[in-house]
Design goal:
- This protein is α/β, with parallel strands linked by helices.
- It has four helices and seven strands.
- It has helices at residues 2-16, 36-47, 60-67, 92-101, and strands at residues 27-31, 52-56, 77-81, 84-88, 107-110, 129-133, 139-144.
- Strands 2-1-3-4-5-6-7 form a seven-stranded mixed β-sheet, with helices on both faces.
- Strand 3 (77-81) and strand 4 (84-88) form a beta hairpin.
- The longest helix has 15 residues, at 2-16.
Length: 145
């Protein structure tokens, strides 16, 4: 009886986990070793259930190009999550939505470094868009913040 109850409890716990942290892919973050806002974004992702692997690079734009994110959507770091790229300070909720919906795309981008985005918290929040970047390099708004 104890085994049955333990199994039932474990199953209920897993079923209630949103997108299950165990189901979330590792986030590989390519960044400058001197960028503190990138470290804050990594913390935001960890706080939202992602495992983060930080990879310091000497040249973020060259790495971004090698990975396949167009430069015009550039920010201070580029991350790889599953089959997608995440450029800049994209909120974890948007990344989770991307992983749930699985659109055909390169990934998401929050170009520049918008104030108030994860890792760029400040008293003054500015509105910004997270873009869904297609394989053709064109983008459309994925979420407005």
């Amino acid at each position: 009886m104890k085994t049955f109850l333990a199994t039932l409890l474990a199953t209920a716990t897993l079923a209630s986990t949103p997108l299950g942290a165990a189901d979330l892919p590792e986030v590989e973050v390519y960044k400058s070793p001197y960028c503190s806002c990138c470290t804050e974004w990594e913390k935001h992702m960890t706080d939202n259930g992602f495992r983060v692997k930080s990879i310091n690079v000497a040249d973020v734009p060259t790495t971004r190009a090698r990975l396949g994110m167009p430069e015009r959507y550039g920010s201070c770091h580029t991350a790889k999550v599953g089959n997608y790229l995440i450029e800049g300070h994209v909120p974890a909720t948007d990344v989770k939505r991307l992983l749930r919906q699985k659109p055909k795309a390169v990934g998401l981008a929050a170009p520049g470094m918008p104030g108030g985005s994860p890792g760029m918290e400040s008293a003054r929040k500015e509105p910004y868009d997270v873009l869904l970047v297609g394989s053709d390099g064109k983008a459309k708004v994925f979420t407005r913040h």
